[in-house]
Each structure stands twice: as C-alpha cells, then as structure tokens.
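Appendix B. Worked example

We walk through a single record from start to finish. Start with the input: the chain for Heptosyltransferase, Fundidesulfovibrio putealis, length 219.
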Amino acid sequence: TASERQSAKELSARLPARLQANVRDLTGRTDWAALADTLAGLDLVLTPDTGVMHLAAHLGVPVTALFLSSAWCHETGPYGEGHTVWQAVTDCAPCLESAPCPHGVACLEPFGSREFLRALGGAAGGEPPAGLAGYRTGFDALGVVCRAFAQPPGAGAGDESRRRLRALAARYLATRSLAARSPGVADDRDEGPDPDWADLLVEDPDFLLHNPQASFEVL
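Next comes the structure step. The output line below is what the pipeline stores for this chain.
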C-alpha cells in the first residue's frame, strides 16, 4: 500500500547497485487489476503471508513465502502445487501478530542468516537454516498439504499428529476409498483413529441418533 512506500525505498537502498538499477517500485501504485496483471507476468513472488501471496498463488505464479511465528503455513499457506514456504519454528510460537512481542521478534532473526540466504538462492546441500523449516506445497485427497524438505531437530514433532487427523477427516467424510487414492492421507484402519482427534470432529449425537442434531437441540 501507499503507506509502505518509505519501507520500499529503504529496502531498495540496501540492494547492491547493480540490482537497484533494475528495481521497479510499484508500492501503492497499482489498483487490483493492475496488481493482478503485474503478478501474472512474474517468474517468482517472494513474499510474507500477505494478500499478494494468495493472489499470486491463485494466478499460478510460483511463490516463496516467509512465515513468522504468528502465521502457520499449514493453515494459511499458498494454495497450489509446488510453492515453497520457509516457516519460523521457535519455542515461543505460536503468537498473536497484534500483541507486543516479549522476545524481540526472535522468529525474524533466522531470515537474516547467511544460511537462509544461501538456501533462498538455491544452494544445494548443507543443514537447514537454524530456526526455520522448509516446506513445498502439494495436494492430497483433502486439499493442499505442506510437505517438509528441510527441518531443524524437533520441528516435525506435529507431523504424525497432523497425518492422523487428516486420515480421520478422510474417513469422517466417507472417503475411505479417497484416502486410499492419496499417498498424503494415511488410512488408519489398522492402527485405529485417535480418540482425541475423533472428539474434534464427531459429537455423540452424530453416531447415537438416527437423525443427528446439535446437542443443545436434543436436550
């Protein structure tokens, strides 16, 4: 937006001179149609979790998205095949974006590391940047899914729980065959659904009553 023009100027001033000559600053200078037209002609969009990110993904433009602790790529990541997400993973996450941060926005620091800049530039090999997890988007039978390609130790602790929940959702939606068609959604017939996950999706009236109703209507 126009309110961010000064920030754009400051960013441009930090670029090497050879890049500054090729910068076209459109901050706050496009309407919706012009923004969509501009994005559609790009090879890549490097962006935080913004409306521009979602518009670019909708237009089929490859996105590399940067997520701080206040946003979670599994919830609001770019929708589409083959996008890249770098997700901050900190002990204090998640947090509320509008609340003051008592940790000095520690989740921002990894994005300034040399390791991240090398990874962003496509350098092969090496350890993932500390404090960041890398994901690429794809689809399973339930929709978009973020699959990790780089994770620091402990960052994937919730992956198995997420897999089980998606498996239960597939079964709850009467899509057992749908789950079998998708390698990204596990079929938990052998291991059984997790009761805690089941409680999130199924209320007692859903399977006790012939004509399911909300609990308050029954009582």
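Two observations about the output. Residues 1-30 form one domain. The longest helix spans residues 159-172.
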